[in-house]
Description:
Order of helices and strands: EEEHEEEHEEHEEEH
Mean pLDDT: 93
CATH superfamily of the largest domain: Probable tRNA modification gtpase trme, domain 1
Distance between the termini: 47 Å
Number of strands: 11
Structural class: alpha+beta
CATH topology of the largest domain: Gyrase A, domain 2
Strand order of the largest sheet: 1-2-8-11-10-9
CATH class of the largest domain: Alpha Beta
Strand content: 35-45%
Radius of gyration: 16 Å
Number of domains: 2
Helix content: 10-25%
Shape: globular
Amino acid sequence: MPNPARIHPLADRLSAGNGVILSPVESRERISLRADPTTAKALGTAIGLNLPTKPTGVTTKGNKSAFWIGPDEWLLIGPDNGSMAKALEKVGRQVYSATDISHRNTAITVSGAKAVEALNSGCPRDLSLDAFPVKSCSRTVLGKAEIILWRTGNQEFHVECWRSFSDYVWKFLVDATRSA
């Protein structure tokens, strides 16, 4: 049975103003991965990424990324074709949890000269380059929504959130750009 096409919850939205640009990120495969360190190495090998082992760590290769979320937890993001899930299935008799959360999550890119100010209007994390350098990620909050925040450039961020909170996060950021 073919998979139904995923409709992006923020389809056709774009916002730019006051030094901030918001844009929805295209649909991606997302996997919540839990494993002990030894198994994590085998899983990383299977998907072609070394899983980060330190807080705020991110590894990226091509169009796949792995985010350190906790001592035994990672968020994997890759092309929307199920290739990572298929690769993980081939690992064999290891104890781990890999849950496809592709339909649960979505993301927004926040960029521009005032991106930090817009995000910090609802995110308590210090987003200065010294405290949160490029290629860092963190589970945090934006307003009342839990997010995973990934700094992809000096003035660019990837905001990962649950689909059910995406409209709230989008509108929060649009309001934040007005006062940034």
